[in-house]
Design goal:
The protein has 6 helices and 7 strands. It has 261 residues and is an alpha/beta fold.
């Protein structure tokens, strides 16, 4: 910028230093939704091929949008915070969701499922609630940031020790290395059930048994698998399991839960 803060040479549509010309600002009617990239003319639009399901499912399950809109119109009281009809209907809706999730996951007591705003929140709750100062936790080589970032904070705040389990090229855990590492006192093992990069699915049964024998709790990040793969927690040695509502369950964003054994 010239001395004195004069940016007058940045004249839209006019001559620029070096002899070039700036493009004029786009017209509002040419912009896409929310002022984003220009909208394509109707004749140039093509069918969407969606492959981003590891981020969020699309389209949502039939009826999800309609039920969400109906709930907001008719039942959106403050659940658990009042005795009036709207608050009770909202609380009933949450309890139906909790019971349905318990049936899906093979959980005998639905009170073991704490509804959360997503898997990230559930993982933060699990990690902060499980680890005391100086305790050791094992993670995989490609753990998600929703695990690594809270652990980085806990390492700084509580002196939690974070160590890594070896994985193969597909990011499947090396069970022999896990068993070796579990020989040292370990409070928690944090495992992504399926990789959002390679799709590799971990052997929960084998990993859970190793953790049980070593006296370590197993926290599973099941954001990619709940609703997509069958899970029976009554027969799986898992202590904590975080999940998302908007991926395999085909529900809205801002939904998820934490199972506590």
């Amino acid at each position: 910028m010239p001395a004195g803060g004069d940016a007058g040479w940045l004249r839209l549509g006019g001559d620029q230093p070096g002899g070039g010309r700036a493009e004029p600002p786009p017209r509002r009617e040419d912009l896409g939704p929310r002022g984003g990239r220009p909208a394509r003319p109707a004749e140039e639009q093509v069918a969407l091929l969606y492959f981003d399901h590891a981020a969020t499912s699309f389209p949502k399950a039939p009826g999800v949008a309609e039920e969400a809109a109906r709930f907001l119109r008719e039942d959106a009281g403050n659940a658990g915070r009042g005795g009036h009809a709207l608050a009770q209907r909202a609380a009933d809706a949450l309890e139906r969701a909790r019971l349905g999730l318990a049936r899906l996951l093979g959980v005998g007591d639905a009170r073991r499922i704490a509804l959360q705003s997503g898997a990230t929140t559930a993982l933060n709750v699990a990690l902060r609630g499980s680890l005391r100062p100086g305790q050791r936790v094992l993670v995989g080589a490609a753990a998600h940031n929703s695990v690594l970032r809270p652990l980085a904070v806990l390492a700084r705040e509580r002196g939690v020790i974070v160590e890594e389990v070896a994985c193969d090229d597909a990011l499947r855990w090396d069970l022999a290395d896990l068993e070796r590492q579990l020989a040292a006192p370990t409070a928690l093992v944090a495992l992504s059930h399926a990789s959002n990069v390679t799709g590799a699915v971990q052997d929960l049964g084998a990993i859970g048994e190793l953790c049980r024998r070593a006296g370590a709790r197993l926290l599973v990040d099941a954001a990619q698998t709940v609703g997509a793969l069958p899970l029976d927690l009554s027969a799986t040695p898992v202590d904590l399991l975080a999940f998302s509502g908007h991926k395999g369950l085909l529900g809205p964003t801002g939904s998820g839960g934490l199972y506590v054994a």
